[in-house]
């Protein structure tokens, strides 16, 4: 795999994370309806107009929509690069990313047309998390040769890592529900929230985080007992660092009344967590080693 292709696939991961962060900025500044229609920004114009009542919010929302186009172009370039590199095995990762961006555009439109209903906002974020994981798989697999793979860790350790991955998915899902029930509605004039006690959801989220931390620590300890699993051991350590940092931000935002800056950092941290978790799962297998003659 050429160096430019590798950089392009890394860029694909970065922009997938960046669109989540800019989406968070839209939400945290109350700019979710800065462009009140879709696919146009206002009736008759695909771009903001000066006479709009939404003020600076229209530029924030339009900027996020514009970035979606950039994300799509990078994903398309990734597909072309994979084809040019003659790596058809990577198309199973590259094509879903490109298709997922189109799906995200539709979900984004539905979100605007439904007045930022929290269910569609949650779906928007969760699909982004899946796209980040798939983009990470594309990037990492491109750095390895194609062909058959073999197990890199014992079966019990594999089960522990996969359990951590499942719990991480639950943590992120409940975390989006916490946001959907909390104070950051995305539009200051039309706050639509989930009809669930946000404190109860926060406690559930915290409980799941504790379970996840325990599983990650278990992965780190178990992989230290597998001398040949050097890649997985390193990635488990990276995941633990990211998890602890994300947990610290989460508790800080909870006890300080959910300030916008910390909430935004927590959203960015969730993206990094998805990347780190995906990297560890991908390390469960490796290219089949040549057999000695």
TrEMBL record:
Keyword Disulfide bond: yes
Subcellular location: Membrane
Coiled-coil positions: none
Signal peptide region: none
Pathway: Porphyrin-containing compound metabolism
UniProtKB keywords: Cell membrane, Disulfide bond, Heme biosynthesis, Iron, Membrane, Metal-binding, Oxidoreductase, Transmembrane, Transmembrane helix
Membrane topology category: Multi-pass membrane protein
GO terms for biological process, alphabetical: heme A biosynthetic process
Membrane-spanning parts: 9-29, 66-83, 90-113, 119-139, 160-182, 202-225, 237-255, 261-282
PANTHER family tied to this protein: HEME A SYNTHASE (PTHR35457:SF1)
Protein's name in the database: Cytochrome c oxidase assembly protein subunit 15
């Amino acid at each position: 795999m050429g160096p430019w292709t590798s950089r392009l696939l890394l860029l694909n991961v970065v922009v997938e994370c960046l669109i989540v962060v800019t989406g968070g900025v839209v939400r945290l500044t109350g700019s979710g309806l800065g462009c009140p229609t879709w696919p146009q920004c206002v009736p008759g114009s695909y771009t903001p107009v000066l006479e709009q009542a939404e003020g600076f919010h229209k530029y924030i929302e339009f900027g996020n929509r514009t970035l979606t186009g950039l994300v799509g172009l990078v994903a398309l370039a990734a597909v072309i690069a994979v084809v040019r590199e003659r790596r058809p095995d990577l198309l199973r990762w590259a094509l879903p990313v490109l298709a997922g961006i189109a799906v995200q555009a539709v979900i984004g439109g539905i979100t605007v047309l439904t007045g930022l209903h929290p269910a569609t906002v949650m779906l928007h974020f969760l699909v982004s998390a899946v796209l980040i994981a798939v983009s990470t798989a594309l990037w990492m697999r491109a750095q390895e040769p194609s062909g058959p793979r073999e197990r890199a860790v014992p079966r019990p350790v594999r089960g522990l890592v996969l359990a951590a991955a499942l719990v991480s998915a639950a943590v992120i899902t409940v975390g989006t529900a916490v946001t959907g029930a909390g104070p950051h509605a995305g539009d200051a004039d039309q706050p639509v929230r989930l009809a669930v006690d946000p404190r109860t959801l926060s406690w559930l989220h915290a409980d799941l985080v504790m379970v996840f931390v325990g599983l990650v620590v278990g992965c780190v300890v178990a992989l230290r007992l597998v001398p040949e699993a050097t890649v997985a051991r390193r990635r488990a350590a990276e995941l633990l660092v990211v998890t602890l940092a994300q947990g610290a931000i989460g508790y800080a935002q909870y006890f300080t009344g959910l300030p916008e800056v910390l909430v935004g950092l927590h959203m960015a941290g969730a993206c990094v967590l998805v990347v780190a978790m995906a990297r560890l799962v991908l390390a469960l297998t490796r290219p089949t080693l040549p057999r000695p003659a």
